[in-house]
Each structure stands twice: as structure tokens, then as C-alpha cells.
Amino acid sequence: MSGRAYFWSRVRAVVYVTGLCLIGLTRNAHAELFTLGVGANLFGGVAWLPQPEPSGFTLLRTQRGGDIPSLIGAAYGGGVTLEPRFLDTLGLELDGFLARDFISGDVKVGASKTPLNIGQVAVHIPTLLKVRLETGLFDFTAALGPEWVIPTLPRAEATNSTFTAIASADSYTALTCALGGEANVNLPGFDVRWPLQVRLSYMPSVGSALSERVTALPSDAVIFESVPQYQVSLVTGLLNFW
Prior knowledge:
Blueprint: H1 3-27, E1 34-49, E2 56-58, E3 65-67, E4 71-86, E5 90-109, E6 112-133, E7 139-151, E8 155-158, E9 164-168, E10 172-185, E11 191-202, H2 210-213, E12 214-216, E13 221-225, E14 230-241
Parallel strand pairs: 9-13
Antiparallel strand pairs: 1-4, 1-14, 2-3, 3-5, 4-5, 5-6, 6-7, 6-8, 7-10, 10-11, 11-14, 12-13
């Protein structure tokens, strides 16, 4: 893409987002100036780590060759959410999740395959700028922002393995976008909403090179980076606004 084409694509994106905000503010002009939502969320989805390039590695002590596949697994968890809003249209969603992030696949060493499972429990803190568009029964929402992730002690399990698997994970920041909506829950005296979102997260700090994913040690132990590069999840819960 040329520099001019890239510039105009960014301009169109800004115009589109600005238009959504203006439409939402116009439709919600009757709403209170500031509101605060507090609630709880649950999420579940799929995380994966594509195959590195190149995918082959060598055990240093035995000099046996190995090959690493793409790793995939379930990611799920839950926590609390806090969301201040302006005119019930522009909001800042602050979540605090405790999540189980594990990925697995069959690592080939010689002629045998070793089931590998790596990952950790982690604290996820998404901070998403959100726009809400009132549409009636189920209001449209879109959000975008960083998601800070703080892993606890990572774990690695290699079944019937000829090598020792070790997992490693540092704190990282994902870029998360969300599309979905929310519906009003009719409870007298309360402003309770039921949100439903599909979220896509991308971890830009995760490299694609083998040297960034795998470290072979002289003892035939292998250190695997256990941070997934992509995650798709469904998020739901309940929010009460004041």
C-alpha cells in the first residue's frame, strides 16, 4: 500500500468512528451526563500460537531433531468490570479477569510424537474505549484498546517425552477489539444490562522465529514460550449502572 493510500484509509477509519460516536450521542442526548457501570463478566474462547519459522529444533545432548507444530487450546475465566460512560454512549471498559491460558500440540522428536501442554493462569486487565449505539432491543457496542496480561507461574507437561519441557512467560500487552451489544434487563429500580461481545486479541510481542519461541539446553531440556499469539473469545455478564 502506498503512503497516500494508507493515509486515506486512516482518514476513512477516523471518519467512520467519529460518525458512530456522533450518531450515538445524538440518539442518547436524553441520557444522564455521566453514569458508572459495575458488574461481573465471564469469557471463554480459543487461543493459539502459529507454527514458528523454521519449526525444526535440535536437542543439544542427544542431537535428535524435533519439530514444533501450531499450538491451540481453550482460554476461559471471569472477573469484575467497571465502566464509566458519557451520555450512555462513550465509555471506558476496565476489566479484571483471572484466566486459564493453555495451548497444546504434538511435538515430533525423531519418529515419535510427544503431546505438549503449556500455559499458565494469568491476570488480564483489558482497558477498552467503547462506543454504544442505541438500536432498540439489543444496542450495538464496539470497543478497542490494550489488554495487560500478568502471568503467574507457567507450567509445561510433556507426556512420554524424551526431553524435559519447561514453560516460560513474561508479562505482555495485547491489542484487543470487541464487537457486540447489550440488552436491558427489566428489574424495577435498577439499570441492569446484559452485555455480549466477541473479542479478538493479538499479542504483537510474540515473535514468529524459532529462536524467539524455543530454547534448547545442554541437558536436553527445552524451554517453550507459553504465550499465545491470538485469542478469540465470547464475553458475557451483567452490569448495573448508576
